[in-house]
Specification:
Layout: E1 4-9, E2 17-21, E3 37-44, E4 61-66, H1 71-83, E5 88-92, H2 104-107, E6 116-119, H3 122-131, E7 135-139, E8 146-147, E9 160-164, H4 173-176, E10 181-184, H5 196-211
Parallel strand pairs: 4-5, 4-9, 5-6, 7-9, 7-10, 8-10
Antiparallel strand pairs: 1-2, 1-3
The protein binds zinc ion.
């Protein structure tokens, strides 16, 4: 595991503090002002949450990503899906797939551990998930939506497929009408919604570790 130490700029008006890998001969001058820096404190390494005995409760969770344009958002959702024990990701419409070479930049390889499918018609894929016994839960706002923090407890024997849609126009109405539940993440500020991959992370982790626990 790579070790780091903190360096700090010796110019009092600057004082920038930043990490440098111990095996790297970088950072002797401040990246902000160019003054000399010095090492501050003992070397350390980044801690992983993995292998601390976290267990996934029984709820089977999948994800339908229909017409999400951004590679970063899709890559980020693969990484989150891997962490939250999501069993499969179904990509629809113009959503980029892991065949795109740049997707791994944000997924950090999670597309290797989360199985995925691709369908040109996301509505057809949504219907297929229904026939496989999945309940479809849209992540979206609007008057029909229920806050993720007010959801009833989930019965683990009834699998759920979360649905996210286009960053601007939202979920296709033909998919939305197939959804049993519309789940929103509460918004207290000026903006009407979170980034789609962040909203998915909030809902997936809540369902996985709180609501179905
Ligand atoms: Zn400096």
């Amino acid at each position: 595991m790579r070790r780091y130490h903190a360096r700090q700029c010796q110019q009092p008006a600057c004082g920038l503090r930043f990490p440098v890998a111990v095996d790297q001969a970088l950072g002797e001058s401040c990246p902000r002002c160019g003054a000399p820096t010095s090492i501050s404190g003992e070397p350390y390494h980044s801690e992983e949450a993995r292998a601390l005995g976290d267990r996934a409760p029984g709820l089977a969770l999948e994800l339908l990503v229909d017409n999400v344009r951004s590679l970063r958002n899709v890559g980020s959702m693969f990484r989150t899906a891997d962490g939250a024990g999501v069993q499969a990701i179904h990509l629809g419409g113009f959503t980029p797939t892991p065949e795109h070479p740049k997707l791994a930049k944000t997924s950090l390889g999670a597309e290797q551990s989360v199985p995925w499918t691709y369908a040109r018609d996301g509505v057809a894929r949504a219907r297929e998930l229904l026939t496989r016994g999945y309940r479809l839960w849209a992540i979206e706002g609007g008057p029909r939506s229920c806050s993720v923090y007010e959801l009833p407890r989930v019965q683990p024997n009834k699998p759920v497929a979360l649905v996210v849609g286009h960053e601007v126009s939202g979920i296709d109405p033909r998919i939305l009408e197939l959804c049993e539940q519309i789940v929103r993440v509460p918004m207290l500020g000026l903006k009407g919604s979170l980034n789609v991959s962040v909203a998915f992370a909030v809902v997936a982790y809540h369902l996985r570790f709180v609501t179905s626990n």
